[in-house]
Design a protein that fits this description.
mainly alpha
Length: about 130
């Protein structure tokens, strides 16, 4: 994977799909991403248990989205801590969620979490 690709937010979803759904080496990155997500949630006192093996990107979005929805995370003060932990811009998330065509804000937020954690894993593996 080219370093410029990982830094490009536009190409990141295709890189995520590749890591989660196809390539064996990068599938390890998918698993590392899931462990990173669990760790970041745990550091904010939020229990999130993901499978040991990658279920695929869309399934992972659904799993995280369902967990956040069940906890009504968007309505809690824990959200700010989680955004800070993940280094995700709160105003960016709020502006995306506020759009009238957004049917499931939790899925959108879940994808942003996965993208951010995948970026952490990518750079950790690239700079080893």
């Amino acid at each position: 994977m080219d370093q410029s690709v990982a830094g490009s937010d536009q190409n990141l979803p295709s890189q995520l799909a590749e890591a989660f759904d196809t390539m064996p080496v990068r599938n390890d990155w998918a698993e590392q991403t899931m462990r990173q997500i669990e760790k970041d949630f745990s550091l904010q006192g939020i229990s999130l248990s993901l499978p040991a093996k990658s279920p695929g990107l869309h399934e992972l979005v659904s799993m995280i989205s369902a967990e956040m929805n069940a906890a009504k995370l968007l309505d809690k003060t824990q959200l700010l801590g989680l955004l800070y932990q993940l280094d995700i811009n709160e105003s960016l998330i709020r502006s995306k969620i506020a759009k009238p065509d957004i049917e499931d804000p939790y899925s959108l937020f879940a994808m942003e979490i996965i993208k951010r954690c995948f970026t952490k894993v990518y750079w950790r593996n690239t700079l080893k």
